[in-house]
Amino acid sequence: MIIVNLQLKAKPETLAEFMDWFAGILPDTRNYEGCSEVNFCVNHTGEDDIEVISKWDSKESYDAYLQWREDSGLLAELPEWLASEPVFRFLEVQEVY
């Protein structure tokens, strides 16, 4: 299992619209094969800092999902909402307690 931590910095002037738009696409993320959980988080110290933490069966499952989003054109829409490039962190779960 891997955990994907997607870190986004939204443009303050479009934050509310972006959050609505982004929250609207997350059910499809959760329903994608290989995804077992998606958490949409806002950093309490900065409202325009958003993190999406998701659990996937494997990195290959996430890569297939990301390619699907790329092919759909959705990833091309992100720059209009973001103040900086997205940061992806991939964490392999070693133990669950």
How many helices? The count is 3
Per CATH, the class reads: Alpha Beta
Spell out the helices and strands N to C.
EHEEHHE
Portion in beta strands: 25-35%
* C-alpha-based Rg, rounded: 13 Å
List unreliable stretches of 5+ residues. Answer: none
- Work out the helicity level: 25-40%
Strand order of the largest sheet: 2-3-1-4
Count up the domains.
1
The strand count comes to 4
Mean pLDDT: 94
Structural class: alpha+beta
3D shape: globular
Query: What is the name of the CATH architecture?
Result: 2-Layer Sandwich
The biggest beta sheet reads: 4 strands, antiparallel
CATH topology: Alpha-Beta Plaits
Distance between the termini: 14 Å
Protein name: ABM domain-containing protein
Organism: marine metagenome
Pfam family, one: ABM
InterPro entries: ABM_dom (IPR007138), Dimeric_a/b-barrel (IPR011008)
List keywords for this structure.
single chain, 97 residues, alpha+beta, Alpha-Beta Plaits, 3 helices, globular, ABM domain-containing protein
Describe what this molecule looks like in 3D.
- With 97 residues, the protein is of the alpha+beta class.
- It has one domain (2-92): Alpha-Beta Plaits (2-Layer Sandwich).
- 36% of the residues lie in helices and 31% in strands.
- The chain contains 3 helices and 4 strands, in the order βαββααβ.
- The chain has a 4-stranded antiparallel sheet with strand order 2-3-1-4.
- β2 (35-42) and β3 form a beta hairpin.
- The longest helix has 17 residues, at 15-31.
- The two termini are 14 Å apart.
- The model has no long low-confidence stretch (mean pLDDT 94).
